[in-house]
Amino acid sequence: MFFGLEFHNSDLRSQIPNQRPKTQIQRSKIKVQRTRNSLQPMPAPPSEYISQSTPDRRPLLMWSVVAVITLAVMAAIVGAPLALARGHNLLAFAIYSSFQHLCHQLSERSFFIAGHQFAVCARCTGLYAGFTLATLCYPLLRSLRNTDTPPRKWLILAAAPLAIDFSLGFFDVWANTHLSRFLTGFLLGAVAVFYVLPGLIDLSLKDWRHSFGKKAVSIRS
Q: Which of 28, 32, 140, 207 is the most exposed, having the fewest neighbouring CB atoms within 10 Å of its CB?
């Protein structure tokens, strides 16, 4: 009988250690679950919430502003000689004076209309014309929400013909013409749009109110 009790107790002792690992496994599972819950991202505050249902029109607005400005610049370049031909001397003088800080305005290197030269030279006319046309066609060629710029090598390649044309004329190797000046400027101006507009659109997408609010709080504190 005593041998039976001893055998029964030994069975119980042999079963108790087998239950301890299960308890430890359950505790480890609880710890892992708590760790996962602590690693879950916290919901963003209402000030940083971005609506997914309403479209953001800021890229379209920025493109519209740039398009209007470029069209106004081209209108001023061509309108200056027309205004001078029609007797609007004050208006023409204001336009010519505005562009004289950006261009040499040499008559022998400029296009003429109505007997008067453009507000800028042929090369600058090509730069502004290429930038304006590329800006107007930009939404047809690329999404306004894409703020990535192409590799810089394309901008360098676009500037190479202009640099070559200028250098050959400057060193009297080859006499460049109004057409060569215009075309090389047009190429560089058109390509430059794909580097300027994405940067402006990216600036328009920033939450300036939130950033300025943080700066104001930090200054006060």
A: 140
